[in-house]
Structures are given as C-alpha cells and as structure tokens.
Amino acid sequence: MRATIRDVAARAGVSVATASRALSSERGVRPENRERVLAAAAALDYQPNILAAALRGRTTYTVGMVVPSIGNPYFATLVEAVEHQLRDDDRSLLLANSRYEPQTERRQIQALLDRRVDSLILVPCDRTASRDATADAAARVPTVQVDLRVDDHAGSSVTVDNEFGLRLAVDHVVGRGAYRPVFVGAEPVDSSAQERLDGYRQATGRYGLGEPDVLLGDFSTDWGRAAACRIVDRDPRPDAVICGNDMIALGVLDGLAAAGMRVPEDIQVTGFDDTPYAALSRPSLTTVRQPQDEIAAQAVRLLDAAAARSDSPPPQRIAITPVLVARGSTLP
Amino acid sequence: MRATIRDVAARAGVSVATASRALSSERGVRPENRERVLAAAAALDYQPNILAAALRGRTTYTVGMVVPSIGNPYFATLVEAVEHQLRDDDRSLLLANSRYEPQTERRQIQALLDRRVDSLILVPCDRTASRDATADAAARVPTVQVDLRVDDHAGSSVTVDNEFGLRLAVDHVVGRGAYRPVFVGAEPVDSSAQERLDGYRQATGRYGLGEPDVLLGDFSTDWGRAAACRIVDRDPRPDAVICGNDMIALGVLDGLAAAGMRVPEDIQVTGFDDTPYAALSRPSLTTVRQPQDEIAAQAVRLLDAAAARSDSPPPQRIAITPVLVARGSTLP
DNA sequence: ATGAAAGCGCTAACAG
DNA sequence: CTGTTAGCGCTTTCAT
C-alpha cells in the first residue's frame, strides 16, 4: 500500500497538518520540522494523492483540451505545444477528440468538466453549433478558444490573424507576377475558413484584381486535388493558387503535377499553417506559418490569469501575427 | 454550486446510500425509488464528482498514455485510435509526451500514476533506459507497451510484426527486379529500429543477396536526405532503398530527386508505417502499413482483461501482421 | 431494500 | 509555529 500523509507525519513525529504544510511548501513550519517531514516523505517514497487534494482543495493540476482531430498534424503539433507548456508547471493534459462533431464535442467537454479540470482549451469545430457548449464550459471554468472560435461569444481566444496571413500570401504571389489568382478554401463552417476567405477577398480587392475567384470545399487533400482539376481546365488559366491550408495545397500540388503543370513556373501555389508536411512536398510549399508555441503559451497564460482572479477577468482576444515562409512552390 | 448526491437524495426522499445505489445502477433498489432518484438527478442536473468516487472507490475511468512525440504523425494517429477506443466506454485519456527522453518519460509516468490512472499505455522510447520505469509502472497498474517495447521485460505488449513487415518490403522490390537493395534505418535505440534492421538482414539473407547493406541514422527526414546523397555516390549504385520508416523514406525521395534520379525507374523506395504523409509524396510512397486501430483495440482489450482479474494475468505479447501498400515509389 | 455511519487522503479553519 | 477537528462527495459495510 502506498504511504499516506499520516505515515509521513507519524514517521516525522509531527501532526498531519504540519506534514501537509511542509509538503505544500507554504511557510509556517519550523525549518527543523520541515526537514524531518521531507526526509520522512523521501524515505517512505511518499506520493501525494492528487485526487484527495483536489477533492478537498479546488485544483486538479489538470487542464482539458478538445480538438477536432488529434490525428491531424496541425492539431497534433498544437497539442504538443500545449502539453509542453503545461509540463513546465507539472500539470497534465486531459485530451479529447471531437471528430468535428458538435455533439461529440459537447459530450467531451462534459466529460472533462466531470473530471474537474482546472481549465479548458477548446478548438470549437463549428462556428455556430459549438457555441452553447463553449459558453456553458466558460461559465464553469476558465476557458480559452484556440485556433478556432465560435461566433458571437465573448470568451477569450487566441488565434492567428488569418486575414493578415492571407494578405501575406496574396502579396507574395502578386509580387512575383501573378495577376490571376484563385483561392481554394473550405466552406466557412469554422472561423478560420471564414476569416481566410474574407482575407483573400480583401487582399485581392486591394490590388483591384477583379471579382475574387474562389473555390470552396473542405480542408482536405482530396478537395485540393479535385480543385486542381477544375483549375487547369479554366480559360484563362489562373497563375496562382492560394490555398486555405496546407492539406489543400498538397492536394493541389498533386493534382497540378498529374495534369502536367509546372509549379512554380506555370502556376504558383501557397498553403497555410506550415504543418510538418509543407517542407517535405515536391516542390516544397510556400506557406503561412502559425507560431504554435506562441499560441500555446498565450493560451496557457490567459488561463492562468483567469484562474488567479476570483472575479472573471474581461475576456481577451489575442490575434497572433503569422509570417510567410517562402519555399519552392512560389517563384524566387 | 453543483448539486451533490445529498441534494439528489433529499429531493428523492431517500438516503444518500440509496441514491448512490440507484445511480450506480447496481441492483438492490426498489424500482419505484430508483425512478425517483433518477428523476431528481435529472431535475437537478446532477453530475457525479468522479474525483470523489475515485477517492472512495478505486477507478478513475482514466487511462494514461505516454508517447515519445505527440506531434509525430505516427504517434498522433495512434493516440487518436486509442482515444477513440476509450471514448466508446466513457473513459478519458491523460496524455503525456516523453520527448524521447527516458528521464522525462519516467517523470511523466509518475505524474500519471499520481493522478491515479486506471491503467497505462506506454510507448517506451528506449529499449534499455525505459526499462525500469516501465517495470515500476507495471507493478502498480495494468500496463501495456504499444508499438515499442523494452528489452527483457515480461510485460504485455502490442506491436506490429516488424520482421515480417520488412520481409514484405524486400520481397516487393526484389519481385520487381531489385537485386542490390540498401537499408536506411535508425540506430537500434528503440525496439522497432532493432527489429526492422534484423528483419532486413533476414529478408535479404533469404535471397542470398550477399552482405546486407545498411545505413543507420535516426528516424528523420534529414537523415533520409543525407543517406540519399551517400547512396547516389555508390558504385555500383543500389537499385532499391528500403527505409526504416516513412520519414526517412520521404527524405530519401527528396534527396534522390535533388540528385536527378528517377523513382521508381532508376531506384525503388519503400517506407514503413503508412503515415498520412505516405500517400501525399511525389511519387507516392510504397510502404508497410501498421493497422493502428487494431493495435489500439488490442491494447485496450489487454488492459481491460488485466483489470478484470485481481491476480495479474500472464503477460501477453501480441504481434500484429502488417500489410504492404503498393504505391508509386516502386515499380508496378 | 434501506439507512446510518465510517472513512478514502488531504487541506483548511480554528485554537492553542 | 503546531495540533485538533472538520469535512470535500462519494461508496460501502453493517445493521435494520
């Protein structure tokens, strides 16, 4: 049986209260006694029962996170960044997958709340359908939306500045001679899809490139491939494809190659996210990088700030400025 | 304040004991009373405090998992498969990252144990350095090693049959005319690296292809790229590159293309794992698929079997047979 | 079938 | 500074 704090106290010859104080490293214990408690704990290989502490106190040192798809490389690296951030502080990550289903998302949030997570990091999969669950969660524990966010909800969020990111991409290709770009994105179900679409429209509008040309599907490679087929058949043919994310871009690259087009000579291509894939494609993909470490750091910071105050602090919306990473899919 | 079981009991006009029994859906409660308890719970939006239940009882409905790198697409999809498996049963996943550091791995296992996970799924990052921590964990809770395993430890494990997988790859390229293959793998720090290397040696031995040609680095794209440079300089030049995993293969593909070689005409290439990347490269990658859903299912099954018995059941080592997925990087 | 009561291991008043 | 005393919310004997 594992040693409890009573065993430690007994061995150190003090009361459990003193042992607890010494272990929790608060002050208010005579150095000599603290010594003895610590020694006893070490000798007994004492490991506090976090569950009991959580039941009595109020923190579980656990934060919950719900993402649409753990297997998606973008979210996987985001989860990794968050976990890394948390580990520095000896906290753990309770991870759940919504599978892009608002229904499932709701249940997962509930499950995390049942486990008394201290706070929640959410990537709401649907701009509207995720709203209620997100709001309910925020009413219970400090909550921050990351990467994606729901409409009309005043909670805190940390996202990348998608509009700006798209402008970077458009500026880049236009600066390299493109004057007939096309956007291949996703139906605006989530906030990024929406903002990137808006960003594209704004950016092309600034150049007076005429009616924005957009093709909308989902954030998948398959869609990118399908879109590429449509693009090559166009007359006049676009000279740049601005994609809503890297997956789409990879599909576009593949579809274009299959149609015998040369990238970037015949047509330039850009992605968004800078997932690990981007550097590996042939040609390598010019893309807009999301600084995930910073996103994770800000999210955790916001959560901690909220936890530190008993009143709920005003929600903050942090938009991180992305940078463009130029690679082989655009002209030098 | 959230409703507690006392509130439910009061509202239903029964004792907490009866309420607890009704809620835990054990039998021994008059149908009529159970009705009332359930109704009261619903009315009060009662949500049991899992922590309290865990403190008193013994299960947390939480399983811990430690992987070397969450961001690695292979592990990300494995985590997803496990999470999916667990969700069906309303259990949660406490995830941790060892970052390929045995030290960190040990701490993470400890942290999970502190949180009283019911069982542990481990991907030990080092064949030898992870041994003690793995054994300690197994002494405390049902534990299963997945994908990787430590040397000389009799615990349960679920892995793919790496030797067989390599034989599939070698057979495939040899069947397509290759007679001078080279293996680009990783130093045998973890068990897969070791087994794949062994598998390559055995497979080529069967064909009498002479002294096995192997290049050892790590499981990264960079290493694959570097290895490709060495390969093109060889005289006579190899006609097939069997890689230790997909990442290496992608690097090899890149390095070969940079050197102007055609794949698969001049040289065939195979990977291992069938990560999402494999289908996206150009040419797409012929690889050995690991059935992750099955691996996850078996792992969870083993854990549940162990939990069901009070005595520790005999450890099981399950080796799942992989299949080859032929794509464009090998001849038709 | 039901209720009273005893804790699980810990922290947080409250006295001393 | 330290010990005593209550519980946190739940499950589980043990009587009834």
UniProtKB/TrEMBL annotation, chains A, B:
SUPFAM superfamilies per UniProt: lambda repressor-like DNA-binding domains, Periplasmic binding protein-like I
Stored Pfam families: LacI (PF00356), Peripla_BP_3 (PF13377)
Name listed for the protein in its UniProt record: LacI family DNA-binding transcriptional regulator
Keyword Secreted belongs to the record: no
Record key words, sorted: DNA-binding, Transcription, Transcription regulation
Coiled-coil intervals, chain numbering: none
HTH lacI-type domain mapped to chain residues: 3-57
Annotated InterPro entries: HTH_LacI, LacI/GalR-like_sensor, Lambda_DNA-bd_dom_sf, Peripla_BP_I
Keyword Transport (UniProt): no
Highest taxon listed in the record's lineage: Bacteria
Molecular function GO terms recorded: DNA binding
